[in-house]
C-alpha cells in the first residue's frame, strides 16, 4: 500500500512537470503574391495558377511561445479548382516588407514558394478544413520566433489552383503543443515537498 501511494505521488509530481499545453494562434495577416505584386489590404490567399501564378503567406504572433514540440496549421480551402499538393515554406523576407506589398517584388514571390519545407498536404476538394502537420524545420523556427512569424505556400497542380475567393476564415489557425519548463525553484519545491511527505509518513519504506 505504501509503495502504491509513493508511486502515485511520484506520478502526480511528474505529471505537473511534463504536462503539455496546447496553444491556438489565429492568423494575424494573410495574402498572396501574383508573381511580384501584393495588395496589402487583400487578405485572400489564392495559390497556384489561374492565368497568373500565385504564392501565398500567413503571419502569426508567436510572442511568449517556447518549447514547442509539435504544431499543426489548420486552413480552410474555399474554392479548389484542381487537385494538387500544397506545400509550406520558411519565409526569409522581413515580415514588415512581406505584408506591406507593392509591385515588382519577384524575390518575395519566389521566397514564398522555395527554401526550407515546413510540410505539405494533398488537396482534393474545396470548402473544408485541412490540417498540415508541421515538420522539425517549422518547430525549430517557431521556438526561435519570439514574435511575428510567417509561412509561405505554393501549389503544385496541372490545373488552375486553389483557395480562390478565400478572404479570411475563423478556422485558419496554428495549433502548437508546448511543454512548459518550470523554474528551478518550482522544481526544487515540488521535489523537496515529495521527499518530505515520503520521509514523514513512510519512514521505513
Describe the structure.
- The protein is of the alpha+beta class.
- The protein has helices spanning 2-18, 95-100, 106-112, 136-145, 184-201, and strands at 21-34, 48-49, 53-61, 68-76, 79-80, 84-89, 117-123, 129-133, 148-156, 162-164, 173-178.
- The strands form two sheets. Strands 1, 2, 3, 4, 6, 7, 8, 9 and 11 form a nine-stranded antiparallel sheet that branches. A two-stranded antiparallel ribbon has the order 5-10.
- Helix 1 (2-18) runs antiparallel to helix 5 (184-201).
- The longest helix has 18 residues, at 184-201.
- The chain is globular, with a radius of gyration of 23 Å.
- The model has no long low-confidence stretch (mean pLDDT 85).
Overview in brief:
The chain is an alpha+beta fold. It has 5 helices and 11 strands, in the order αββββββααββαβββα.
Helix and strand topology:
Elements: H1 2-18, E1 21-34, E2 48-49, E3 53-61, E4 68-76, E5 79-80, E6 84-89, H2 95-100, H3 106-112, E7 117-123, E8 129-133, H4 136-145, E9 148-156, E10 162-164, E11 173-178, H5 184-201
Helix pairs in contact: 1-5
Amino acid at each position: 500500500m505504501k509503495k502504491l501511494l509513493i508511486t502515485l505521488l511520484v506520478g502526480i509530481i511528474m505529471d505537473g512537470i511534463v504536462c503539455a499545453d496546447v496553444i491556438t494562434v489565429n492568423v494575424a495577416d494573410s495574402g498572396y503574391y501574383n508573381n511580384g505584386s501584393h495588395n496589402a489590404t487583400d487578405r485572400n490567399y489564392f495559390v497556384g495558377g489561374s492565368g497568373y501564378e500565385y504564392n501565398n503567406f500567413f503571419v502569426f504572433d508567436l510572442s511568449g511561445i517556447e518549447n514547442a514540440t509539435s504544431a499543426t496549421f489548420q486552413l480552410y480551402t474555399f474554392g479548389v479548382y484542381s487537385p494538387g499538393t500544397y506545400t509550406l515554406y520558411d519565409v526569409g523576407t522581413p515580415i514588415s516588407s512581406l505584408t506591406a506589398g507593392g509591385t515588382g517584388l519577384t524575390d518575395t514571390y519566389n521566397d514564398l514558394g522555395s527554401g526550407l519545407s515546413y510540410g505539405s498536404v494533398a488537396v482534393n476538394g474545396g470548402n473544408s478544413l485541412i490540417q498540415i502537420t508541421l515538420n522539425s524545420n517549422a518547430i525549430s523556427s517557431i521556438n526561435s520566433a519570439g514574435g511575428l512569424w510567417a509561412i509561405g505556400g505554393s501549389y503544385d497542380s496541372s490545373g488552375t489552383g486553389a483557395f480562390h475567393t478565400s478572404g479570411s476564415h475563423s478556422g485558419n489557425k496554428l495549433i502548437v503543443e508546448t511543454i512548459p519548463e518550470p523554474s528551478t525553484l518550482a522544481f526544487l519545491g515540488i521535489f523537496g515537498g515529495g521527499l518530505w511527505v515520503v520521509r514523514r509518513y513512510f519512514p521505513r519504506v
